[in-house]
Amino acid sequence: MMTTEREKMTAGEPYQQYDEELQARRTEVRKQLSAINALDDNKEQNRRLAKLLGDSGKNLWIETGVEFDYGYNIHVGDDFYANYRLTLLDTCPITIGDHCYFGPDVGLYTPVHPIDPDQRLADVEMGKPITIGNNCWLGGHVTILPGVTLGNNVVVGAGSVVTKSFGDNVVIVGSPARVIKTVK
Fold this sequence. Notes:
alpha/beta; 20 strands; transferase; Trimer_LpxA-like_sf; acyltransferase; UDP N-Acetylglucosamine Acyltransferase, domain 1; EC 2.3.1.-; 7-stranded mixed beta sheet; LacA-like
């Protein structure tokens, strides 16, 4: 049984986003990210970023401008590179496989806000996890929506909005993204 708002949030259950523990973590993460993003030394930036994440493999490299809510729900594999202005809204787990590369202005968003106006007025929030397989490449300005899973060897064209899951070995583009090519 889930007892804390953090446990409910991470499990994708309805939770109260204004919970004191969650607010305190978001505030602390914003402070640390502000300091990290201001550093000139990218190696030091990435060393500090790795400490905020749930876990990360070897060779984490994220350029300046990374933003996320909590950090503890972000799991990154080996040999990860992200260009400028990466946004990871991690109310639910975001899992990124090995050998993945993200272009500038990529956003992965796990929060789900209710369509029902009464639930929105009650500040009910939920989330759905995002999983990115191994050896994936996301072009610039790609948006990944809640609940999406991408298989291994997926390429997502620049500017795409990914609204549903795709299996291995495909190139997807568009808004909403669709398969334009199978690879391998």
